[in-house]
Amino acid sequence: MLNECFRVMRSGGVVRTTTPSISFLIRLCVADRTQLEDQYVAWAAASMQPPAPAPLAAYVVNNFVRGWGHQFIYDRPSLTLALTRAGFANVTECKVLESRHAMLRNLEDVPRLPPGFLELESMVLEATKP
Asked: pTM for the full model?
């Protein structure tokens, strides 16, 4: 997909990728989770169909990967590598809804999840075609 984006873009074009972060999933499995991470685990476990038997990170992580059909979940270094191997340069991390480029702001569907959850699970990278 990134190769095709690079192929069809003009020089100076910017690609924005918002994707789940494996670092987020790993954080769900540690003992010192934040309150927001605890709330996410409880919400996700209860939201599964059928609901998880208990609000445990293992159920949430497995459902996150398998239930959504993910084949690979990136971290920042692996997505940066994928972007640069496709030919992109100037890879920068952004916050959800934010960008240096006006047309790339406010793109994510934040209200589809409880407050703070999309920001928690997502990683946003932008890169430029030289």
From this structure: 0.91
